């Protein structure tokens, strides 16, 4: 069965390029970004892993631990890492899970047989400190993901987790946020001292509360 938002992200034990992990223990109290790759020594994956390594500091600033998975073994991952480093001019600084038995791929429903019998699709799971799935994305093997979008969506998820606000279309960190429908306009005016702009009774903006 596929994982849905709000489900507990399945725990697992695995070998990785940074040693064995127990997933929930490895996450600790952090947010997590778990993302899958169709296979080692493939071009799009090589660019994605390098991009993630380059952005690791940005994820860390937001309290997010990143981890990749592909259904190849540890030996293959270790032979591939120097290529990723060379091509992207970066040191690999986060773990890649060796999932040759497809345990993680199965738990997270990352193999879509009508796309490929063997390889995983490009799945993304963002997991909150409560170990619940906050966001899922599925891309085909041929489309590399937009890691700036992953950083953006983490900003939105964390804002919603900490304040009673949502974020509008194309929102970027620093833009006005939307007061969630569950908060009355009267309560919103009291709750958001920076002000509430009422466009419709159900569409109320407030400056981003944590800026
Ligand atoms: C890749 O990872 O580069 C890739 C994998 C399968 C199809 C196309 C690209």
Q: Can you put this structure into words, describing what you see?
A:
This protein has 211 residues and is of the alpha+beta class. 31% of the residues lie in helices and 23% in strands. The protein is built from 7 helices and 11 strands. The strands form 2 sheets. A 7-stranded mixed sheet has the order 2-1-5-4-3-6-7. The longest helix is centred in the last third of the chain and has 16 residues. The radius of gyration is 19 Å and the shape is elongated. Benzoic acid (BEZ) binds next to helix 2.
Structure summary:
This protein is of the alpha+beta class and 211 residues long. The protein contains seven helices and eleven strands. Benzoic acid binds next to helix 2.
Report helical residue fraction. Answer: 25-40%
Rg calculated over all Cα atoms: 19 Å
Shape: elongated
Number of strands: 11
Runs in which pLDDT lies below 50 for 5 or more consecutive residues are: none
Tell me the distance between the termini: 40 Å
Beta-strand content estimate: 15-25%
- The whole-number mean of residue pLDDT values reads 97
Helix/strand-derived class? alpha+beta
Alpha plus pi helix count: 7
Bound molecules: benzoic acid
Q: Please give the largest β-sheet.
A: 7 strands, mixed
**Order of helices and strands, N to C?**
EEHEHHEHEHEEHEEHEE
Strand numbers in spatial order across the main sheet: 2-1-5-4-3-6-7
Entry keywords:
211 residues, alpha+beta, 31% helix, binds benzoic acid
